[in-house]
Amino acid sequence: MGSVTHPFPTQSTLFPVVAAMQAHVYKSQRKPDTYLYLAARDDFGRVPEALRTQLGALQFVVEVALTPERKLATEDAAVVREHLAMRGFHLQCPPPNNLDPMSDDWGTDA
Question: How many CA atoms lie within 13 A of 37 on its CB side?
Answer without folding.
Answer: 25
